[in-house]
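Protocol step 4 of 6: structure prediction from sequence.
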Amino acid sequence: MSALKRVVENDLIDRISADEYRDKIKHVYGGPQGAFLATASRISLHIRMGKRLIGSRRFDIRGMRSILDIGSGAGQLAGHLLTYSDPDARITCTDLSQNMLVRARKRLRSDRPAYVAADLTSLPFADNSFDGATCGYVIEHVPDTAAGLGEIARVLRPGGRMLMLATEDTFSGAWTSRIWCCRTFNRQKLKELCESLGLRWRQELWFTPMHKAMRAGGICVELERV
């Protein structure tokens, strides 16, 4: 199975320069594939599962005055932030693709969030700017994972918490990698990297008990800035 996974998995992120890879990702998400993203998230039940995590308060955003949604895509997680955050919470949506931010604004039909085009490895925010963050299937698109996670740690205040979802190095994760041109992560190695950068794994989360039993759904974790 591991050999087949290696054949299926897309290794583009390791074969070309960081600038070339960013241009590729902008093209993927800015074009027809990105336009299908919200529909794909509904079909895969990721929108519903994200709502379950945030709406049930397993990832509790109450009391957060400022929340950063990293790699907002079509606003799949941002929609839940609008619904379940405190009414006066400041929400900021970022994405590498300007086209995706346009789609998020249209889908969310809300001017409450600020929409900012930004590279995760160089976020245009001051240190300790946010009480909370969400990062759904984004970090696997960053050529320098440590740089991306380091920026998240920088802009989160101490004690700030983040919901992170990432593609795991499983066979289903390899297919996700093939389709969306991203890498996959070994769960333990990603945990060690996060904690070396000041992002403590506060709790591992699962969409449903079935996901936990089958070790499915990728990596879903609440991180805390120490």
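Step 5 (inspection) to follow. The chain has one domain: 2-119+129-156+163-225.
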